[in-house]
């Protein structure tokens, strides 16, 4: 399952 | 955060400010696609809904708010304040041809079937194609003012730097986000033809970019 780590990108 | 990511964000900010200042100083949005700017405002709006749900960092929150404010200010200048200078007759790209497939695709391909995730995916897919009305307008009129081309250069550079950021993150964190990467590569490819014209015509010739 994917975490939300690119969500810190703009 | 790495140097590519930071340079990408700065490049993105520079692009948006160049466009806003150009319109503000010349009191004209001639040659600018209002449709592309509305799509970018929609991209930021649907992507940054997480401003209300999670806190990531001060940098993240400030940049999101700045991008939102600047994109809405740009749309305001084009459609309200300087609407007399808006070339709507040349801004004829049919955005529904972008929106319908992008909406469909974001429902089919996402990380979770929740409203926020679908809207995030929608924003990533839409950003990849949002510049098409602007590029279409330049192709139609056959020219672009140099400041408009500087705007497009920094906008394209931003996504190209993000690709370098993803390569870096893959190697250092073993992390990758396929939706973001595929869309980002597609988005950057749209700029390749423009980059070629920018380097061969605008930077050497100074002044307007004219198409052959």
Structure description:
The complex is a heterodimer of chains A (10) and B (212). By secondary structure, chain A is low in regular secondary structure. Chain A contains no helices and no strands. Chain B is mostly helical. Chain B has eight helices and two strands, in the order ααααααβααβ. Chain B has a two-stranded antiparallel sheet with strand order 1-2. The longest helix of chain B has 28 residues. Chain B starts with a helix and ends with a strand. The mean pLDDT of chain B is 95. Chains A and B meet through loops of A and helix 1, helix 3 and helix 7 of B.
Morphology call of chain A: rod-shaped
Spatial strand sequence of the major β-sheet of chain B: 1-2
Supply the number of helical segments of chain B.
8
Percentage of residues in DSSP E strands of chain B: under 5%
Mean pLDDT of chain A: 73
Order of helices and strands of chain B: HHHHHHEHHE
Look at the helices and sheets of chain B and give the structural class. Answer: mainly alpha
Helix content of chain A: under 10%
* Low-confidence regions of chain B: none
- In terms of structural class, how would the helical and strand content of chain A be classed? little secondary structure
Biggest interface and which pair forms it? A-B, 8 and 19 residues
Number of helical elements of chain A: 0
Using only C-alpha atoms, the radius of gyration of chain B works out to 17 Å
Strand count, sense and barrel status of the largest sheet of chain A are: none
Radius of gyration based on Cα positions of chain A: 7 Å
Instruction: Please state roughly what percent of the residues of chain A sit in beta strands, choosing from under 5%, 5-15%, 15-25%, 25-35%, 35-45% or over 45%.
Output: under 5%
List the quaternary state of the chains.
heterodimer
Termini gap of chain B: 41 Å
Mean pLDDT over all positions of chain B: 95
């Amino acid at each position: 399952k994917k975490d939300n780590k690119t969500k810190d990108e703009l | 955060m790495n140097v590519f990511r930071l340079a990408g964000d700065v490049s993105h900010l520079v692009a948006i400010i160049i466009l806003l200042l150009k319109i503000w100083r010349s009191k004209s949005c001639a040659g600018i696609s209002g449709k592309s700017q509305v799509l970018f405002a929609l991209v930021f709006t649907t992507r940054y809904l997480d401003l209300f749900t999670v806190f990531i960092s001060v940098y993240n929150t400030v940049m999101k708010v700045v991008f939102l404010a600047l994109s809405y200010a740009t749309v305001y200048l084009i459609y309200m304040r300087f609407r007399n200078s808006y070339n709507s007759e040349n801004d004829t790209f049919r955005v529904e041809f972008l929106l319908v497939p992008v909406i469909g695709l974001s429902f089919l391909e996402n990380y979770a079937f929740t409203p926020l995730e679908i809207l995030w995916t929608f924003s990533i897919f839409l950003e990849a194609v949002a510049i098409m009305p602007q590029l279409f307008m330049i192709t139609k009129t056959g020219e672009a003012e140099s400041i408009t081309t500087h705007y497009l250069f920094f906008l394209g550079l931003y996504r190209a730097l993000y690709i370098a950021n993803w390569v870096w993150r893959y190697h250092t964190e073993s992390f990758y986000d396929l939706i973001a990467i595929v869309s980002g590569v597609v988005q950057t490819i749209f700029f390749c033809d423009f980059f070629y014209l920018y380097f061969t015509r605008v930077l050497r010739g100074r002044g307007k970019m004219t198409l052959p």
